Recover the amino acids of this structure.
């Protein structure tokens, strides 16, 4: 009886990994589709990392009537499958490709949100990205350790 | 500076891999590593067991209380208890006789040994790491002659003489350490893992068995002057091994191979 319960626990653990893989990859696929479509939509809005000082030498900033600070953030959670792989990889070393796609999605989503927030801006300058770790305290309790990626994007939007 | 809108052609930030294939390779690597560590440490344990003096051996055996392979059935019938104690007494007498020979003329001092009589139809005996020789009732039904029982006991004593019981204990300990390193403090998975492996590890290897048989032959020859009982005992187990003695086969090699082995050794 006891071993039956143990088997059940193990089975539920394995099942959750399978479900997490299917769910997670479907989610990621859907997200990438949305990112690609929206990136196409904003293709004509120039977004630069250059500061106002350096861009001022190239174009006349007096042509713009308004400037505004815009910021956007996004938080994406990893799934059990990705975490299992990352745990194994942290022993052997190597690229954690599952987390790479997580970061990639978060960054592109943050930039897209920034552009959406900027509305009908004509130019976005001084754009910067930063990554925030949300759960540094989760290490002690390994079972509850979750990995989440938080990316902030901020910039100056210029309007004509 | 002219701005031209460009679509991202390929994503260099994400390594293109098959996540399932990657996981499979990782798991295989990990399993190979664990097995490698287990084999390497097992080898070291074997060397350590050979170097141990008999005092430390006794200390280790006193420390462990390894539960026997079979669950003891609760016997409430007083007549049955009496019968069991008679059988146990019979076995203990033989054990004492053999022990005297092993300590004296054979010069193979053994640790303290006990007999554990287990009810049930199983035809089997086993040398547990804590020094209890587990004898099942089924075996006593098949083998009644003193010398045949003596062969069985001498065979188990051979395992103690060759310190196979310590090797078994060492490997079980290793498994426990490895599984708790991998699975952490999660007891349920740990138990499952170690129980599964203990079942597989609750037997001695072919070489260990034939060494124990060789010891049994020597001890029989010293005690009774002949070794005829060895082959007759194995023959009797063989006669019943077609269907009933599956349990015997799970912890011992097939009697046929052992018989052939014995013939080689007696020649």
């Amino acid at each position: 009886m006891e071993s039956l319960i143990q088997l059940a626990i193990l089975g539920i653990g394995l099942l959750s990994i399978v479900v997490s893989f299917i769910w997670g990859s479907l989610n990621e696929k859907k997200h990438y589709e949305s990112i690609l479509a929206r990136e196409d939509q904003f293709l004509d809005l120039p977004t630069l990392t250059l500061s106002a000082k350096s861009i001022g030498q190239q174009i006349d900033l007096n042509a713009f009537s308004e400037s505004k600070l815009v910021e956007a953030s996004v938080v994406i959670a990893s799934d059990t499958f990705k975490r299992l792989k990352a745990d194994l990889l942290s022993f052997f070393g190597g690229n954690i490709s599952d987390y790479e796609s997580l970061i990639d999605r978060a960054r592109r989503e943050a930039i897209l949100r920034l552009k959406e927030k900027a509305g009908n801006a004509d130019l976005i300058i001084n754009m910067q990205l930063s990554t925030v770790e949300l759960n540094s305290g989760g290490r002690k309790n390994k079972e509850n350790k979750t990995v989440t990626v938080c990316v902030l994007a901020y910039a100056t939007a210029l309007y004509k | 500076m002219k701005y031209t809108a460009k679509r991202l052609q390929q994503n260099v930030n994400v390594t293109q891999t098959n996540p399932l294939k990657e996981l499979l390779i990782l798991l295989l690597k990990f399993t190979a590593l664990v097995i490698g560590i287990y084999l390497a440490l097992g080898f070291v344990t074997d060397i350590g067991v050979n170097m141990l003096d008999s005092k430390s051996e006794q200390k280790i055996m006193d420390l462990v209380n390894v539960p026997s392979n079979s669950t003891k059935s609760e016997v409430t019938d007083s007549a049955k208890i009496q019968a069991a104690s008679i059988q146990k007494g019979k076995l203990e007498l033989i054990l004492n006789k053999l022990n005297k020979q092993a300590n004296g003329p054979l010069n193979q001092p053994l640790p303290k040994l006990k007999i554990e009589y287990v009810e049930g139809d199983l035809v089997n005996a086993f040398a547990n790491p804590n020094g209890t020789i587990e004898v099942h009732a089924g075996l006593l039904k098949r083998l009644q002659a003193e010398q045949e029982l003596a062969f069985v006991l001498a065979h188990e004593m051979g395992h103690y003489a060759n310190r196979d019981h310590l090797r078994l204990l060492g490997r079980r300990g290793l498994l426990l350490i490895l599984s708790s390193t991998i699975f952490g403090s999660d007891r349920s998975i740990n138990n499952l893992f170690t129980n599964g492996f203990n079942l597989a590890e609750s037997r001695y290897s072919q070489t260990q068995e034939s060494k124990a048989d060789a010891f049994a032959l020597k001890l029989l020859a010293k005690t009774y002057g002949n070794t005829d009982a060895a082959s007759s005992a194995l023959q009797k187990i063989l006669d019943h091994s077609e269907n009933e003695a599956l349990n015997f086969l799970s912890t011992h090699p097939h009697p046929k191979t052992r018989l052939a082995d014995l013939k080689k050794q007696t020649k």
Chain B touches chain A through 27 residues (CB under 8 Å). Strands of chain B lie at 114-118, 125-127, 132-136. The first strand of chain B starts at residue 114 and ends at 118. Residues 183 and 189 of chain B are 7 Å apart (CA to CA).
